[in-house]
Amino acid sequence: MGKCYVDRYFRITESVSQKKALVTEVPGWIELTFIDPIVNYREMSEAWKFMFDWGKRTYPRYSFRFPCLTTCLLANEGEREPIFFSCFTSTMDVSKGAYYGIDIKGKSCAAPLIAENVYASFLMHPGEFYFLNPGVDLKKYQTQWYL
Q1: What is the pLDDT of residues 76-92, one digit of tens each?
Q2: What is the value of pTM for the model shown?
Q3: Which of 77, 52, 80, 56 is nearest to 65 (CA)?
Q4: Dist CA 38 CA 87 (whole Å)
């Protein structure tokens, strides 16, 4: 079972050259996470601001955030080299009141002070996703990862 990717129009693709974002199911939503960093070497506050501005210019219909920890771990699972690394996530360690990050090896860690890579993701309503991808069965893909 392979991972699910979409092209720049958010349609599922198997073409390596057209893969723009990873598809992950989160409760009640579809998370789309761009596989190329949008910027490099930023503190978290700088990265948030850049992501907000980038999102408004690039895909103004959506509200962007850092990817979920589970999305990054799903993407990196089974890969020779991690897809997401040295980055922030939107997942918090509630007991420490701090965000998780992904280290250089693609594993979970405390969020770095400066992220080498800043990845962007957004949540899409499942109805919109299935409108863009009629008849798709996400059960054919690895779109969920559980801690």
Answers
A1: 999 999 999 999 999 99
A2: 0.92
A3: 52
A4: 11
